[in-house]
């Protein structure tokens, strides 16, 4: 499992969100309070953020633990942003230990993180991988379950599906083929979308100013609201909407490239 966080709102430094809170994401790398699977998130970390006027995010990722990276400490202190996504990683057995596997993943202006795991990785997931065409499989960001989930989501986003529908569709696809924990988190710098499926998720809204969505609260202050399991969330600095996530009611998965050619 992993821990992750996304923010939209008034300009802040990453340090204000990740390092300075007493139980922030930085501390969650070695001492998470609510993590249900795994105990330490030291298999990599990443930060993605948006600069004003640029729709494409910048990223800083490493394969080692966040607490050992002095460059991150400096970066988090001086960067200011209105939108970011950050994650610390606890790797699924059998996945690559390299920086490429550290969230956030990025494409087309989106940032993505997966807190969870696909059972049996990589064995038994051939039917799920077959939903992607060969080019999409060859283009996987890393050899890991999170990269496969990201490719499935990106496929739907590029087909024009609204992000909430795309997230629900991916959950439906994955759980049809394997047991999984699927707390997914994605942002384009304007909206945050997330799923709670198998682990904790919280949000904190200051209407008109900011919204924070995180695996667990970074402090014991007021305003943190738990997201029910098996839910999908859409958040902006003005509002948070949470709906039940019921894969049986989701539209059928998008056809694979092979199926499309047959039609």
Automatic annotation (TrEMBL):
<dbReference type="InterPro" id="IPR032889">
    <property type="entry name" value="EgtC_Actinobacteria"/>
</dbReference>
<dbReference type="GO" id="GO:0016740">
    <property type="term" value="F:transferase activity"/>
</dbReference>
<dbReference type="InterPro" id="IPR029055">
    <property type="entry name" value="Ntn_hydrolases_N"/>
</dbReference>
<dbReference type="InterPro" id="IPR017808">
    <property type="entry name" value="EgtC"/>
</dbReference>
<dbReference type="Pfam" id="PF13230">
    <property type="entry name" value="GATase_4"/>
</dbReference>
<protein>
    <recommendedName>
        <fullName>Gamma-glutamyl-hercynylcysteine sulfoxide hydrolase</fullName>
        <ecNumber>3.5.1.118</ecNumber>
    </recommendedName>
</protein>
<comment type="function">
    <text>Catalyzes the hydrolysis of the gamma-glutamyl amide bond of hercynyl-gamma-L-glutamyl-L-cysteine sulfoxide to produce hercynylcysteine sulfoxide, a step in the biosynthesis pathway of ergothioneine.</text>
</comment>
<dbReference type="GO" id="GO:0052699">
    <property type="term" value="P:ergothioneine biosynthetic process"/>
</dbReference>
<comment type="pathway">
    <text>Amino-acid biosynthesis; ergothioneine biosynthesis.</text>
</comment>
<keyword id="KW-0808">Transferase</keyword>
<dbReference type="InterPro" id="IPR017932">
    <property type="entry name" value="GATase_2_dom"/>
</dbReference>
<dbReference type="InterPro" id="IPR052373">
    <property type="entry name" value="Gamma-glu_amide_hydrolase"/>
</dbReference>
<dbReference type="GO" id="GO:0016811">
    <property type="term" value="F:hydrolase activity, acting on carbon-nitrogen (but not peptide) bonds, in linear amides"/>
</dbReference>
<dbReference type="InterPro" id="IPR026869">
    <property type="entry name" value="EgtC-like"/>
</dbReference>
<keyword id="KW-0378">Hydrolase</keyword>
<feature type="domain" description="Glutamine amidotransferase type-2">
    <location>
        <begin position="2"/>
        <end position="263"/>
    </location>
</feature>
<keyword id="KW-0315">Glutamine amidotransferase</keyword>
């Amino acid at each position: 499992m992993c821990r992750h966080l996304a923010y939209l709102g008034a300009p802040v430094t990453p340090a204000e969100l990740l390092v300075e809170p007493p139980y922030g994401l930085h501390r969650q790398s070695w001492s998470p309070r609510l993590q249900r699977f795994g105990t330490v998130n030291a298999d990599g970390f990443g930060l993605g953020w948006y600069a004003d006027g640029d729709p494409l995010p910048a990223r800083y990722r490493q394969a080692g633990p966040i607490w050992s990276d002095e460059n991150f400490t400096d970066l988090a202190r001086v960067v200011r942003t209105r939108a970011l996504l950050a994650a610390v990683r606890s790797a699924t057995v059998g996945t690559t230990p390299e920086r490429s596997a550290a969230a956030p993943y990025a494409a087309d202006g989106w940032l993505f993180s997966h807190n969870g795991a696909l059972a049996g990785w990589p064995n038994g997931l051939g039917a799920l991988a077959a939903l992607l065409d060969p080019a999409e499989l060859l283009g996987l960001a890393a050899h890991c379950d999170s990269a496969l989930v990201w490719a499935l989501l990106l496929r739907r986003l590029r087909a024009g599906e609204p992000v909430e529908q795309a997230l629900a569709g991916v959950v439906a696809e994955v759980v049809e083929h394997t047991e999984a924990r699927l707390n997914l988190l994605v942002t384009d710098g304007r909206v945050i979308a997330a799923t709670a499926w198998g682990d904790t998720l919280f949000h904190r809204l200051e209407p008109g100013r900011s919204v924070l969505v995180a695996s667990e609260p970074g402090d014991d202050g007021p305003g943190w609201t738990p997201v029910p399991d098996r839910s999908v969330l859409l958040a902006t600095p003005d509002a948070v909407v949470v709906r039940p996530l019921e894969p049986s009611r989701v539209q059928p998965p998008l056809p694979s490239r092979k199926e499309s050619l047959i039609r």
